[in-house]
Design brief:
This protein is α/β, with parallel strands linked by helices. It contains seven helices and five strands, in the order βαβαβαβααβαα. The longest helix is centred in the middle third of the chain and has 16 residues.
């Protein structure tokens, strides 16, 4: 690992972001992991983010406090909106308004402070549940903005947003992570996980995760309640 080759990795404690962290580390980056306590109902993911960051050898793990629950508008931040347990069409109620834009903006700021020119995020255009801020067009637009809006970009230190999972299905993501030594039992993906990190097995995230292990041909290590 080259300590001069720094990257900020957005880590939620879930399957995708953990795989991205393993990929960045394998590419020789000194990994600075970033998570958000944003008022989410599934707070067990914060403990999982800390676990996977430690297990995969991060340099520093930072948790930034935001209260996106103050504006609500999502089943993940407003307990009055039920998390759907059946497949839905269009953009689901688990979409958190502007979440990735807020998260990546803070990651961008930390990258500037660290002198890092690389940010990794686990967005995916295949199994992305219909979220508009997980599409390649969005990532390209944010990267362009980042290079216009920062001192680093203006001074010629090009910032790059890496999305290594963008075109992969869940089974392929899991297979790639296992090849890199990821222990998926440390991760939490459920939108309504309990305080111990056990999953409901019914929400969209649980369905995608379970099918991913089936497609990868390996046992599902997820703990369900």
């Amino acid at each position: 690992m080259n300590s001069d080759k720094r990257a900020v990795i957005l880590v939620s404690g879930g399957l995708d972001s953990t795989t991205v962290l393993a990929m960045a580390r394998a590419q020789g980056y000194a990994c600075y992991t970033l998570s958000f306590d944003y008022g989410q109902r599934h707070r067990a993911e914060l403990l999982a983010a800390d676990r996977v960051s430690t297990a995969l050898g991060d340099v520093e793990h930072k948790v930034v406090n935001l209260n996106l629950d103050a504006i609500g508008g999502s089943a993940l931040t407003d307990t009055d909106i039920d998390v759907p347990e059946e497949e839905t069409q269009g953009i689901p109620v688990t979409y958190v308004p502007a979440r990735n834009t807020v998260f990546m903006s803070i990651a961008l700021g930390w990258a500037e402070v660290l002198g890092a020119q690389d940010i990794f995020i686990g967005v995916n255009a295949v199994d992305y549940s219909g979220y508009p801020d997980c599409r390649p067009e969005y990532i390209a637009a944010f990267e362009a903005m980042a290079n216009l809006a920062t001192r680093a970009g203006v001074e010629g230190q090009k910032l790059t947003i890496h999305t290594p999972l963008m075109e992969l299905g869940k089974g392929d993501i899991i297979a790639a992570g296992l090849d890199l030594g990821v222990d998926y039992s440390l991760t939490v993906s459920c939108y309504q996980a309990d305080a111990d990190g056990r999953a409901c097995g019914k929400c969209d995230s649980c369905r995608l995760r379970r099918q991913g292990f089936v497609d990868a041909g390996v046992a599902d290590p997820t703990r369900y309640y």
